[in-house]
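stage 2 :: seqdesign
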């Protein structure tokens, strides 16, 4: 029974995450970004709070990024490309607006992160770590496990 459930979950996950095409040049990175997007949609406020904290970005800037149609994985990728590539977020956003039809692999390359480079491997590794962190903070129900709430409010 557990094996059947695991197989079903794997198939559902594959189809859910493969619906997002980031065109990074890495199927693994695309899948990780899809997972990040799905998880962020479950708790968008918590996702945004984490990004504000992790990247020292304003909520207003994040809201703008979502308002122009970016998915959570794209917002995350924008911040990572900015961070790893040493480029201002606004430069990455301008490149995205001009080249989103060419895919994130092209955008990363334009921002100085070449395929196969240490920076590209760092980008992949950080996305995988973010996905794994989200997975480990969830119980089998898909809800945060005890003690892993994304709330930034007072602890009881």
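stage 2 :: out
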């Amino acid at each position: 029974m557990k094996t059947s459930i695991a197989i079903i979950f794997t198939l559902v996950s594959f189809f859910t995450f493969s619906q997002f095409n980031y065109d990074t040049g890495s199927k693994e990175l695309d899948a990780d970004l899809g997972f990040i997007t799905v998880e962020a949609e479950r708790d968008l406020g918590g996702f945004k709070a984490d990004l504000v904290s992790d990247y020292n970005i304003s909520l207003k800037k994040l809201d703008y990024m979502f308002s122009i149609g970016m998915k959570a994985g794209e917002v995350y990728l924008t911040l990572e490309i900015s961070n790893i590539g040493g480029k201002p977020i606004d430069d990455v956003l301008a490149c995205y607006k001009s080249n989103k039809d060419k895919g994130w692999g092209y955008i990363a390359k334009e921002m100085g992160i070449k395929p196969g480079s240490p920076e590209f491997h760092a980008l992949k590794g950080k996305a995988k770590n973010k996905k794994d962190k989200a997975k480990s903070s969830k119980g089998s129900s898909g809800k945060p496990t005890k003690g892993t709430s994304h709330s930034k409010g007072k602890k009881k």
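stage 3 :: structure notes
- Confidence is low (pLDDT under 50) at residues 6-18, 145-156.
- DSSP finds eight helices and no strands in the chain.
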